[in-house]
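[job 4471] stage=fold_predict status=RUNNING
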Amino acid sequence: MQHVTAPELATWIADANRPTPVLLDVREPWEIEKCSIAGAVPIPMNTVPARMQELDPEEAVVCICHHGARSMQVAAFLERQGFTNVSNLTGGIHAWALQVDPTVATY
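[job 4471] inference complete, writing structure tokens
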């Protein structure tokens, strides 16, 4: 599994020459209501096994949670299921709010 920092992810998303990754937000709905990254796909961690067919195993996927622990578990799970390009957002959406987008609420 790869790890990506919030600034690295922001650069990746902004790079028109690089395909934008699927931003897989594995937090709970109440957390996503508080804040999210634009364009993120909300699939709570406990529903990923039942819903992973909604994701393309060949596409780049960046897993996101609050601080990076749950998303790291989901990224490892997806790799075991054959996904070939999975990353974990180090520090989660909290790091994104502090390092990239101060308009994103912290909790």
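[job 4471] summary: The longest helix spans residues 69-80.
[job 4471] exit 0
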